[in-house]
Amino acid sequence: VKCADISNVLKPFAIARRWALRVTDEFFLQGDVERQHGMLPVTPLCDRAQQSRVACQKGFIDYVCAPFFDAMATLYPALRPAVRVMHANRAQWDTYSDARLELLHRDHPPLLPSSPTPDALSSDDAPPCSLSLSLSLSLSLSLSLSLSLSL
User: Which of 60, 64, 76, 122 is most buried (CB neighbours < 10 A)?
Assistant: First the structure.
Protein backbone atom coordinates (compact mmCIF):
# COMPACT_ATOMS: atom_id res chain seq x y z
CA VAL A 1 0.00 0.00 0.00
CA LYS A 2 2.80 2.44 0.84
CA CYS A 3 4.36 1.96 -2.61
CA ALA A 4 1.07 2.95 -4.22
CA ASP A 5 0.57 5.86 -1.83
CA ILE A 6 3.79 7.62 -2.87
CA SER A 7 4.14 6.20 -6.38
CA ASN A 8 3.65 9.45 -8.31
CA VAL A 9 7.41 10.00 -8.31
CA LEU A 10 7.77 6.76 -10.32
CA LYS A 11 5.60 7.96 -13.19
CA PRO A 12 6.88 9.74 -16.32
CA PHE A 13 7.98 13.26 -15.41
CA ALA A 14 5.06 15.08 -17.09
CA ILE A 15 2.63 13.12 -14.90
CA ALA A 16 4.80 13.23 -11.76
CA ARG A 17 5.16 17.01 -12.14
CA ARG A 18 1.42 17.53 -12.38
CA TRP A 19 0.83 15.39 -9.30
CA ALA A 20 3.53 17.31 -7.43
CA LEU A 21 1.60 20.49 -8.22
CA ARG A 22 -1.62 18.95 -6.90
CA VAL A 23 0.04 17.86 -3.68
CA THR A 24 1.65 21.25 -3.06
CA ASP A 25 -1.67 22.94 -3.91
CA GLU A 26 -3.25 20.83 -1.17
CA PHE A 27 -0.44 21.59 1.30
CA PHE A 28 -0.62 25.32 0.57
CA LEU A 29 -4.41 25.33 0.96
CA GLN A 30 -3.92 23.65 4.34
CA GLY A 31 -1.46 26.40 5.29
CA ASP A 32 -3.92 29.07 4.16
CA VAL A 33 -6.60 27.53 6.39
CA GLU A 34 -4.17 27.38 9.31
CA ARG A 35 -3.31 31.06 8.81
CA GLN A 36 -7.01 31.96 8.47
CA HIS A 37 -7.69 30.30 11.84
CA GLY A 38 -4.77 32.01 13.56
CA MET A 39 -2.70 28.83 13.85
CA LEU A 40 0.72 30.42 13.89
CA PRO A 41 3.25 29.42 13.00
CA VAL A 42 1.80 27.74 9.93
CA THR A 43 3.07 24.20 9.34
CA PRO A 44 6.35 24.86 7.48
CA LEU A 45 5.66 22.52 4.54
CA CYS A 46 2.25 24.18 4.09
CA ASP A 47 3.39 27.81 4.13
CA ARG A 48 3.19 29.10 0.55
CA ALA A 49 4.97 32.31 1.61
CA GLN A 50 8.05 30.41 2.78
CA GLN A 51 8.09 27.11 0.88
CA SER A 52 9.31 26.27 -2.60
CA ARG A 53 7.29 23.74 -4.61
CA VAL A 54 10.44 22.50 -6.33
CA ALA A 55 12.32 22.17 -3.03
CA CYS A 56 9.38 20.25 -1.55
CA GLN A 57 9.47 17.73 -4.37
CA LYS A 58 13.24 17.36 -4.33
CA GLY A 59 13.24 16.84 -0.57
CA PHE A 60 10.37 14.36 -0.78
CA ILE A 61 12.29 12.28 -3.31
CA ASP A 62 15.66 12.61 -1.54
CA TYR A 63 14.51 11.86 2.01
CA VAL A 64 11.37 9.73 1.64
CA CYS A 65 10.93 8.17 -1.79
CA ALA A 66 14.49 7.33 -2.88
CA PRO A 67 15.46 5.54 0.36
CA PHE A 68 12.15 3.69 0.38
CA PHE A 69 12.01 2.68 -3.28
CA ASP A 70 15.74 1.89 -3.49
CA ALA A 71 15.20 -0.52 -0.58
CA MET A 72 12.06 -1.94 -2.18
CA ALA A 73 13.89 -2.48 -5.48
CA THR A 74 16.53 -4.47 -3.60
CA LEU A 75 13.79 -6.74 -2.28
CA TYR A 76 11.69 -6.68 -5.49
CA PRO A 77 13.98 -6.31 -8.52
CA ALA A 78 10.98 -5.85 -10.84
CA LEU A 79 10.69 -2.31 -9.39
CA ARG A 80 14.12 -1.28 -10.71
CA PRO A 81 12.87 0.26 -13.99
CA ALA A 82 10.38 2.42 -12.09
CA VAL A 83 13.07 3.42 -9.60
CA ARG A 84 15.31 4.52 -12.49
CA VAL A 85 12.42 6.73 -13.67
CA MET A 86 12.22 8.24 -10.18
CA HIS A 87 15.95 9.05 -10.20
CA ALA A 88 15.63 10.58 -13.69
CA ASN A 89 12.68 12.63 -12.42
CA ARG A 90 14.77 13.82 -9.49
CA ALA A 91 17.46 15.01 -11.89
CA GLN A 92 14.76 16.75 -13.94
CA TRP A 93 13.63 18.68 -10.84
CA ASP A 94 17.13 20.21 -10.70
CA THR A 95 16.33 22.00 -13.97
CA TYR A 96 13.19 23.63 -12.56
CA SER A 97 12.52 26.80 -10.63
CA ASP A 98 9.23 27.67 -8.98
CA ALA A 99 8.70 30.39 -11.62
CA ARG A 100 9.05 27.86 -14.45
CA LEU A 101 6.76 25.45 -12.65
CA GLU A 102 4.10 28.13 -12.18
CA LEU A 103 4.17 28.92 -15.92
CA LEU A 104 3.62 25.26 -16.73
CA HIS A 105 0.95 25.04 -14.05
CA ARG A 106 -1.04 27.77 -15.82
CA ASP A 107 -0.63 26.10 -19.21
CA HIS A 108 -1.44 22.59 -17.93
CA PRO A 109 -4.03 22.69 -15.15
CA PRO A 110 -3.95 20.03 -12.43
CA LEU A 111 -5.28 16.55 -13.11
CA LEU A 112 -8.12 16.98 -10.61
CA PRO A 113 -10.62 19.81 -10.17
CA SER A 114 -9.29 22.72 -8.17
CA SER A 115 -9.74 22.83 -4.43
CA PRO A 116 -11.76 25.68 -2.99
CA THR A 117 -9.84 28.79 -2.06
CA PRO A 118 -9.49 29.61 1.63
CA ASP A 119 -11.92 32.52 1.19
CA ALA A 120 -14.57 30.07 -0.03
CA LEU A 121 -14.30 28.00 3.15
CA SER A 122 -16.36 28.82 6.20
CA SER A 123 -15.10 28.00 9.65
CA ASP A 124 -17.56 25.08 9.72
CA ASP A 125 -16.07 23.69 6.49
CA ALA A 126 -12.46 23.94 7.57
CA PRO A 127 -11.81 23.19 11.22
CA PRO A 128 -8.29 23.73 12.50
CA CYS A 129 -6.13 20.69 11.84
CA SER A 130 -2.78 19.53 13.02
CA LEU A 131 -0.54 17.24 11.05
CA SER A 132 2.50 15.37 12.22
CA LEU A 133 4.81 13.17 10.22
CA SER A 134 7.47 10.88 11.58
CA LEU A 135 10.00 8.97 9.55
CA SER A 136 12.44 6.28 10.56
CA LEU A 137 14.78 4.24 8.39
CA SER A 138 16.59 1.27 9.86
CA LEU A 139 19.61 -0.60 8.57
CA SER A 140 17.37 -3.55 7.73
CA LEU A 141 16.02 -1.51 4.79
CA SER A 142 12.61 -1.04 6.31
CA LEU A 143 10.90 2.31 6.23
CA SER A 144 8.22 3.28 8.67
CA LEU A 145 6.10 6.30 7.90
CA SER A 146 3.30 7.34 10.18
CA LEU A 147 0.86 10.14 9.67
CA SER A 148 -1.62 11.42 12.19
CA LEU A 149 -4.34 13.92 11.50
CA SER A 150 -6.50 15.36 14.21
CA LEU A 151 -9.51 17.49 13.51
Answer: 60
